[in-house]
Amino acid sequence: MTDFSRRQALMLAAAAAAAPAFANAQTAAAALPAVWDLAPLYPDAAAWDAEARAVEAALPGLAAHKGKLGESAASLRSALEAISALQKRFLRLVVYATLKADEDLSVAVHQERRQRAQALGAKFGEATAWTSPEVLRVGRARIEALLGEDPALAKFRFGLMDTLRQAPHTLDDQGEALLAAASNPLSGPTTVRGQLVASDIPWPTVTVAGEPVRLDQQGYTRARAAADRAERKKVFDTFFGAFKGFESSLGAALAAKVNGDLFNARARKYDSALAWATDGPNIPTGVYRTLVAEANRGLPILHRYFDLRRRLLGLSDLGYWDIYPPVTRLDARFDLAASRRLSLEAMKPLGPEYSREFERATAQPWVHVYPSKGKRGGAYVFGAAYDVHPYMLLNHTDNYEGLSTYAHEWGHAMHTLIAQKAQPFELAGYPTFLAEVASTVNEQLLVAHMVKGAKTREEKLFYLDRVCEMMRATFYRQTMFAEFELAIHEAAEKGEALSGKRLSAIYLDLLKRYHGPRMTIEEAYGVEWALPGHFFDYNFYVYQYATSVTAASAFAEKILAGGPRERDAYLAVLKAGGSDYPVDVLKRAGVDMTSPEPYRAMLTKFERTIADMEKLIG
Questions:
Q1: Most distant CA atoms of the chain, gap in Å
Q2: How does 229-254 read in b/e, with b if 16+ C-beta sit within 10 Å?
Q3: Which of 121-130, 165-174, 176-185, 339-348 shows the lowest mean pLDDT across its residues?
Q4: Best label site of 26, 177, 251, 403, fewest CB within 10 Å?
Q5: 318-319 and 391-393 as β-strands: parallel, antiparallel, unpaired?
Q6: CA atoms in the 13 A half-sphere facing the CB of 21
């Protein structure tokens, strides 16, 4: 999945043969599917309803395996396969419900179906809550003996060993069932924030470039890059002013979310919410803190980039409203077919097998491509339906942002396809810490391809700035979000209150530190914490965008400078799926995220790119 405000800029590759190539791409665009076909999931909503009822009816039957996990290898395999088969069916239900709901957020029946899927997830959790406590009672010695007796249990080994690893944080049957049942009510802050932003906040309308723009989230994302500086500031003042009017309510929702995280952490006997969040994928908390420390260490480089932006914009000073307008331009636009063609060219360093599968997959009706009324903004890939294929939501625009997002999301989709081909269902689902690596490698290969093919000084400046913007938006900005998330959880753990006003003060302090003393930031912009939905949807999620762009930078550099060995080391990461802990998967491929080295190497690349731009502009 991607954040939803993240990719920027515009392009078309080489200039000499651009006109005929673009014309051909436009002709080919009509042949590329623009709306996904959900029939491979379910032929219609009635079939979904029937399957949802069947899955729910099957849940009580899992209790027949309770108390039998340690009896024999056969009884252990029977239980785990029954749970796995039902989980696969449940995830397919979730995929369909999510996709239908996001086609049009205003259709109540689709939103209700998504809620039914969420409720079913809570019931699934309750029905299987006994498994971890029972595995722990059976014990490591007996589990390992049973695994040795039946080769068919091999696909369950990693999950069983991981359960045993988490023994200190696993409750008894009743406790696990209670926490599973609590998952649905604890999602309330997400629902409240979503409803406020989607329908209850009266988003204002402003005039930008002579046209009225409704400043909801999508309108703000478009208008914040306005050419006129006074209009940009008006967009910022108006948009965050609208959020400011709901600061207290949104603050109450986020505080409730944080308290829910603390409840889960304490219930599972972790010493902090951060430890709870990172222990699932077995990521040392030191990785999180190293990321924050290295980003802060590299802030002078970011401030140097901001000064470069000021010069390119021809300004004597810089305001926060000057972050998004393009400082370089390229007079070329390209459609879906051009995005596909350029992405295929850029991914050639990943080898012929990757290229063939990419070419095949991108021609399928798996994607909802263009914006439409009521459709969810942003972009994501949902690949949880193991027996089908991944689906992708885009809001494609015919500019470099659209191209970059296209390449990014297909990185997710290809990761899913490769992992599902290499791993059984039980081991194919990769953790988020790895997910954003594949997508960001694709982005970096794309921009490297464009830099290499640049024919003019202006083109090269444009693409080099895309590298810088990736560093700013995906490394520094996401780390700033991560530092905010850590700060508010630590404040709550100390018993401090988190009002909307307090949240805005914490966030404003971070905004000023990350953007430097020479940038003007209005106090009202401190409410920007209400904009990223990830704070409400997940716990300690966004830092993985920053770690991912760091790992991706390392892999992209190795792939482009190396050969088959470096490429295959990276592809082994994709093939691993969820068969091992993500930090270990990356370390085997030559990228150690527990050390400062990958972060420092990436920031050196950032500094080098800034220097290249400075040379080009004299």
A1: 76
A2: eebbbbbbbbbbebbbebbebbbebb
A3: 176-185
A4: 26
A5: unpaired
A6: 15
**Residue 69: both structure tokens together:** 């996990």
Q: What are phi and psi of 580, to 5 degrees?
A: -155, 170
- Which pLDDT score, from 0 to 100, does residue 423 have? 98
The secondary structure of 137-148 as a DSSP string is HH-HHHHHHHHH
DSSP-derived secondary structure letter, 519: E
- Render pLDDT for 435-485 as a digit per residue (tens, 0 to 9): 989 999 999 999 999 999 999 999 999 999 999 999 999 999 999 999 999
Please report the beta strands in 501-555, taking only residues with DSSP state E, as ranges in sequence order.
519-520
- Based on the residue annotation, tell me whether 126 is a catalytic residue of this protein: no
Is pLDDT of 25 > 60? no
Phi-psi region of 329 (alpha: psi -120 to 50; beta: other; left: phi over 0): beta
| Token representation of residue 466 | 């895309």
Residue entry with tokens 């508010």:
488
Cα Rg, the chain, nearest whole Å: 24
Answer positive or negative: Cα dihedral of 330, 331, 335, 340: negative
Q: How confident is the model at residue 497 (pLDDT cuts 50, 70, 90)?
A: very high
Q: Residue 116 class from Cβ within 10 Å (0-12 exposed, 13-18 middle, 19+ buried)? A: middle
Please give the single-letter amino acid code of residue 542. Answer: V
Give the per-residue SS3 of 255-292.
HHHHHHHHHHHHHCCCCCHHHHHHHCCCCCHHHHHHHH
Residue of 6, 21, 13, 16 whose CA lies nearest to 462: 13
| Residue from 134, 401, 409, 426 carrying the catalytic annotation | 409
What angle do the packed helices 597-617 and 299-313 form, to 10 degrees? 20
CA distances (Å), origin 127, targets 82, 94, 95, 179, 247: 12, 17, 21, 12, 39
Q: CB under 8 Å to 568, separation ≥6 — which residues? A: none
Three-class SS state of 367: strand
Question: Rounded to two decimals, what is the model's pTM?
Answer: 0.86
Note the residue count of the chain.
Answer: 618
